[in-house]
Design brief:
The chain is an alpha+beta fold. The protein contains three helices and four strands, in the order αββββαα. Strands 1-2 form a two-stranded antiparallel sheet.
Length: about 130
Amino acid sequence: MSPLNTLALVILGAALTVSQAAARTVIYYGDGSTYTLEANEQIYISTPHSVLFKRQLFSNKDTFFHAQEPWGGRDHVPGPTDGQDIGSHQWCQAFLPWSEGMTFNQQAWDRHCDTNSDGIYGPGDGPWQDG
């Protein structure tokens, strides 16, 4: 194998290792809390009408299945807010578009505040209030 091919393989291997190490799965809940999966954790999705079961195998080959309780752990639980509801007139006025980059707040501002899509919150937008 030529030195150039060896170098290309080393670079490819390093890139794959870095991309795998940087990938993180974060679950965002409707209440604003989050949970970040660790390297050895997996996600299983069920509904209230389809129960997820956990298998317990004993040394004598007996197998028991137990209903899995929903995971209640959270990394981040949001603290008190400023009292402004996302999409309200006060929130739309106070928010600085693109100040945080492309975030859920920016998407909410685009959807709820800048209803005429001109990039500015003002008269002509849905929640705008004169006065």
